[in-house]
Amino acid sequence: MVTPTQHHYEAWCERDGRSWSVDIPELRIHTYGHTLVDAEEMARDAIAGVLDVPAGSVTVSLHVEEVEDQLAEARAARSARAQAAAREKEALAKAVAALRAAGASQRDAALLLGVSHLPDLGRRFGHRRLTARGPATATTDTGPGPRPHPSGSGRGREWTTWRVLTARVSTT
């Protein structure tokens, strides 16, 4: 978001030999930079000089006309991926809650959800440890960490992850 003390301008870039030519049509400024990072900095400095404002108050959006469509498509795909990840997280949380209520074991839940083991789910839900306190609340667990399994097989971590998932589900 641009604040009232900030100035935002669009800059159009084009490769010119070994450097980038930059035009800011709104202010009729032309500059260049060896890289796009340099070009952005030069554009920001040029705008600040013309407007007589600090360079830190100027923001610039660079556009490369020849690839603008591909950049827009990539940005849209990235946004769609983030939205899909959020939907997946919510769906997994609901599935874990339903499996937990049905009495599924950790191994069964992992199998049905298509993960190799429950720590994979824990990474998707974050690593903050919570423990359930009643049907709809959760508190932070200040314990020393996952309890090691007596056999040393690492099953303690899976146990902790299951607690994280069930506690997060109960808070929604």
Overview of this protein structure:
The chain is built from five helices and six strands. The chain is an alpha+beta fold. The protein has a four-stranded mixed β-sheet with strand order 3-2-1-4, covered by helices on one side. A hairpin with a 2-residue loop joins strand 1 (7-16) and strand 2 (19-24). Helix 2 packs across helix 5 (155-171) and helix 4 packs across helix 5. The chain is elongated. It starts with 6 loop residues before the first strand and ends with a helix. Mean pLDDT is 75; it is low at 126-145 and 155-172.
Radius of gyration: 26 Å
* Quaternary state of the chains: single chain
Mind summarizing the main beta sheet?
4 strands, mixed
End-to-end distance, in Å? Answer: 30 Å
Which regions contain 5 or more consecutive residues with pLDDT less than 50?
126-145, 155-172
Number of strands: 6
The proportion of strand residues reads 15-25%
Count of helix runs: 5
The string of secondary-structure elements, in order, is EEEHEHHHEEH
Overall mean pLDDT score? 75
- Structural classification: alpha+beta
Given the C-alpha coordinates, what overall shape results? elongated
